[in-house]
Amino acid sequence: MQTIIGVLTLDIHIPYSGSLKEKRMVVKSIKDKLHHKFNVSVAEVDFTDKWQRTRLGIVQVGSDYKYIEKNMDIIFNLIDSNDAIEIVDHNFEFI
Predict the structure, then answer these.
(1) 2 in Cβ contact with 88 (< 8 Å)
(2) Closest Cα to residue 14, out of 23, 5, 24?
(3) Helix or strand or coil: residue 11?
(4) Res. 1: pLDDT tops 90
(5) What integer best gives the mean pLDDT of the chain?
């Protein structure tokens, strides 16, 4: 059995955030929802000191390329539908 790792990286703008505390609340909400609904690992990987910007890394491990790719598409669309944020850039890759 082959181990496959899918990595989705999202650069996110949080336009209504006026402090790091507000930003952390938005990021924590996204992370918690994704972790529980999709059983993925989510981490803020850059821009930790910026109020209105973040980069999230989302990782899923499995044995089926199509399953992981489908989940990452669903995750992307779920985050993109969040009115509190705007996805500025994204990247998906298998490693």
Answers:
(1) no
(2) 23
(3) strand
(4) no
(5) 96
Cβ–Cβ under 8 Å, residues 47 and 55? yes
Q: Rg of the chain over CA atoms, in angstroms?
A: 13
pLDDT of residue 77: 98
- Percent of the chain at pLDDT above 90? 96
DSSP 11-66: EEE-TT--SHHHHHHHHHHHHHHHHHHH--EEEEEE-TT-SSEEEEEEEEEES-HH
Parallel, antiparallel, or unpaired for β 4-13 and 53-62? antiparallel
Task: Count CA within 13 A, CB hemisphere, residue 25.
Answer: 7
Instruction: Find out whether 76 and 90 touch, Cβ atoms under 8 Å.
Output: yes
